[in-house]
Amino acid sequence: MGGDDGGRQPSGIIEPEPVVAGPGAGGMRLVPDRVEGMGVEVLTPEYRRIMEIMAGSDGPVMAKDVAVALGRETTPAKVEPVRGQLRKLADRGWISRTGAGRYLAC
Q: How far apart are CA 98 and CA 61, in angstroms?
């Protein structure tokens, strides 16, 4: 009986190949929690650019300042996404948020 499959035909179902996912895909965080020794290379290019802007500032910056440095307009529709990115960076330990709505490089 070893080779007898009972007359069944192959299902034709093809097994999916593994997909290599980048940050943000399949629930992966764009901004991981920062741990000791972790460098900005784990961030996406846009978040790395924000970190460069933060590192080059003389003190706390506002979301509007970062938006301008990124080459964006200062309209609320362009500044609010940057504010959200700064919040993520602050919430995950990459930068600090001051009480006045400004952000500081750690």
A: 10
